[in-house]
């Protein structure tokens, strides 16, 4: 059965934070399960979230919730292994506030619906299984 793969040992990085204000808009807010907080990127064509898990994982599901008007028009999912980074999949989220589940790690948010290229993510969860 799939369960969340994000834990305290999971290292996350983001492309940017709005006005470098990590106290109000930092990456940690994607993982706090609160509808009142979010990660808010700064301006730019491509924004991204990168996750490094403490061990090998098999991802079965990605749960992602944007703020309407600040969603990516398309997303590219990349992974890495001993040979380097590899493109895994492309998907196209809806521009609304709904929790979106994608079956298909670095998630690259391409072509934001915001005029300045900002992306706002209220929640992100990765489900799957730990492998050896």
UniProtKB/TrEMBL annotation:
Cross-referenced SUPFAM superfamilies: Galactose-binding domain-like
Keyword Nucleus (UniProt): yes
Lineage from the top down? Answer: Eukaryota, Metazoa, Chordata, Craniata, Vertebrata
For this entry, the protein name equals: Nuclear receptor 2C2-associated protein
Q: Can you tell me which family this protein belongs to?
A: Belongs to the NR2C2AP family.
Gene Ontology cellular component annotations, sorted alphabetically: nucleus
Please list every transmembrane segment annotated in the UniProt record, as residue ranges. Answer: none
Keywords in alphabetical order: Nucleus
Q: Which organism is it from?
A: Periophthalmus magnuspinnatus
Its localization reads:
Nucleus
| Highest taxon in the source lineage | Eukaryota
């Amino acid at each position: 059965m799939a369960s969340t793969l994000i834990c305290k040992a999971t290292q996350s990085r983001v492309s940017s934070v709005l006005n470098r204000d990590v106290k109000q808009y930092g990456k940690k807010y994607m993982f706090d399960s609160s509808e009142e907080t979010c990660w808010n990127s700064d301006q730019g064509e491509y924004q991204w979230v990168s996750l490094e898990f403490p061990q090998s994982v098999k991802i079965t599901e990605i749960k992602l919730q944007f703020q309407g008007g600040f969603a990516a028009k398309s997303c590219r999912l990349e992974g890495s292994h001993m040979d380097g980074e590899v493109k895994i999949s492309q998907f196209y989220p809806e521009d609304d506030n709904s929790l979106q589940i994608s079956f298909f790690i670095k998630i690259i948010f391409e072509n934001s619906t915001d005029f300045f290229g900002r992306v706002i993510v209220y929640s992100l969860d990765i489900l799957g299984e730990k492998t050896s």
